[in-house]
Amino acid sequence: MMMFLTGLLLTAVIVFALYAFGVFSTPYLDAFRVAFYLLLVLLILSIWVSVGHQPSHQGQDTTVGAAKQ
């Protein structure tokens, strides 16, 4: 799910970047530029959360010794 959200944010960042830097003519360049920077921050945060906070998967292993019974 986090990968899907990151991909969706990346797509939105690309589209907003095209609008924000004048590829398409629109009277709302400042608004698109602000939205682009906000989406860029969200993209960086989502990548940081998905890569930086992986669970350690350390805990009790209930299968150790189960075959000896």
Explain this structure:
The chain has helices spanning 2-20, 29-52. It has a domain at 7-50. It contains two helices and no strands. With 69 residues, it is mainly alpha-helical.
Please name the defining characteristics of this protein.
rod-shaped, 69 residues, mainly alpha
Brief description of this entry?
With 69 residues, this protein is mainly α. The chain has two helices and no strands.
**Separate helix tally:** 2
Uncertain segments: none
Helical proportion?
55-70%
Q: Write down how many β-strands occur, each being a DSSP E stretch of 2 or more residues.
A: 0
Q: What string, H for helix and E for strand, traces the elements in order?
A: HH
Shape: rod-shaped
Radius of gyration: 21 Å
SSE map:
Blueprint: H1 2-20, H2 29-52
Helix pairs in contact: 1-2
